[in-house]
């Protein structure tokens, strides 16, 4: 008897398993709606290409279209970044998918993207082990050995016209794939321009992309609400037409004239006292 094949879908720590509900043959009322809801929930875990920088969040899969294609992984045993060839990862039928069709097959291939609310920069943390942040020093050396984040752990994602992404560090230089001695590949971040080596495909889960769109929608709605002003009530309090000319009532004009008159009298009195003191000491 053949063994039941094990599921190959990658799951993350803390991710809830969705239970499938069996339906009876006679259950038709609301079944289409329920099925559509299940499809939406299933598609929320689908890996998609991002379109805007604010969409980069949550589990993140970073690919480089080299030959063969590679992805940025973290070796928790050796505590170092490894550029893993994804040609070794095949589908269930043994075929090689295209770069855009690929999804992570190991947790070590996934980075967790976080950001401070309202910031344009992001932090990339390893998805395995104790969670180390991707960082770069002023010499362009890239590592993932820090548990705390600072300026060197901040990256600015730049979405290019073709949908690919370049990562700029705090020194305004770009993350790139570099060939070192022996033909092996490593990451550096000292490129001043974006070329082939500095371009990456970045995939996120669809639910986080939807979340980013919802936040952007609420933010725009909030701005439009805040910009509404009750002009009628405001003009009753403050009116300044022409070259800053204030429109005031008759009583206000009288009060202003009195204040000016009192001010002139006070100034004259002070001048008189000062003159008397000076005459006394002469």
From TrEMBL:
InterPro entries, alphabetized: Actin-crosslinking (IPR008999), FRG1 (IPR010414)
Cellular component terms (Gene Ontology): catalytic step 2 spliceosome; nucleolus
Spans through the membrane: none
Superkingdom of the source species: Eukaryota
Protein's UniProt keywords contain Ribonucleoprotein: no
Protein localization: Nucleus, Nucleolus
Pfam families on file: FRG1 (PF06229)
Compositional bias of kind Basic residues: 7-22
Record region (Disordered): 1-46
Keyword annotations of the record: Nucleus
Single annotated GO MF: actin filament binding
Membership in a protein family: Belongs to the FRG1 family.
The name this protein goes by in its record: Protein FRG1
